[in-house]
Amino acid sequence: MVLRRLLSTLRGDAPSPTQAAVGSPLDLLDPVFLENPYPTYAALRVHDPVHRTRSGAWFLTRHADVAAAFGDRRLGNAPAPTAVIARRNRDRFVCADVAANILPFLDKPEHGAVRRIVAGALRARLGRLDLELPQLAGSLLEPCLERRSMEVMSEFGRPLSVAVISLIMGLPIEDAARLDAWSDAFFHLFAPMPSEAARVRVDQDLAEFRDYLRQHAAARRRAGGDDLISELMQTEAEGRILSEPELLDACMLIYADGIENIDAAIANTLLALGGHPEEQRRLEREPERARAVAQEGIRFDTPGQFIARIAREDLVIAGRSIPQGGVVLLALAAANRDPVAFEKPDRFAPDRSEGGALTFGQGRHGCLGANLVRLQVAAALQALFTRTRRLAIDDGPVRYKARVGHRWPERLHIRFEPT
């Protein structure tokens, strides 16, 4: 295996970097890689920073290359023509029609106007969230205090993200179960469709998601509202508003994206604190440091490990030729551990002075929900470390979901004492 040879090279027992770079390419679903991708990232950064994966994609791991790729107009967002969600399939498949409307798959000129509308609506609604978040986080923690234990993902992280995004969008919290199922289907847009049967199920779920949101949009048109759906309907950019399909699919994206990574970000940050007990003790003494800890947690072990771009023309990155139509994977998590960009990057250090983490991308394709993620993770940490002490992670290995491009623990059990 190429990666075993690369790792051996780092240990000093392989013949040469050139020989180390020969062999089988990275399998992004390799269980060993999914459990801990960081040694692999370190090896690739040194010896094969533009690596050809088993699927044929080009995998970028150095901070400089990933940062440059975000601003490279030769790399586009639109899916490859051969993909199930390619624009040419939008009249055949609901998944392709949704992809044609949402920001992660848009290029200029559509991208600019849609982004400005969504950004304006989000700013208007998120400005009121600072006062609401601590109360929500505290209320979710309350039932767990008496029994002195909790499963972070299902009992705290996920309910918090669902409550917050439901509040922002004005959707009934009692609909959370079916919205959760639809959101899971939505994320199939960001990975190869595993089968035709899966594509049919995803199309059905996305059609139901759209119909649900259409009913809520119609209610806002009749009676108005003070929520994100209402803001999206009213916000203009470049002399236009969102069409109904754009509105519904933007709402779908915001809801799904708003719940999918929060629980994992909270869990991953708690795991990082568990591995750096001096930082955990400091947070226990100074819970007001929660924002800095959240920011570092999201850099240190980001739930969204990499994202895709498509080469719009033949190009060369770090000496490697990539043909037009080639899939380029930007390894955000690898870039965030690059020692060229961060001093001692494998150390969890909330006080680090360097900026430049690429967790949320940058530039015109930076994540619009970045501040929402930071706010929620910080609120969760502040609630935990204000209301509890001697927090510890239960013994046993942490398992991660087998999802390409994501680092989501299946579960994380913790125990603590109430303060």
From TrEMBL:
Protein name listed in UniProt: Cytochrome P450
Keyword Iron: yes
InterPro entries in the record: Cyt_P450, Cyt_P450_B, Cyt_P450_CS, Cyt_P450_sf
Species in which this protein is naturally found: Alsobacter soli
UniProt cofactor(s): heme
GO molecular function: heme binding; iron ion binding; monooxygenase activity; oxidoreductase activity, acting on paired donors, with incorporation or reduction of molecular oxygen
Signal peptide annotation: none
Protein family: Belongs to the cytochrome P450 family.
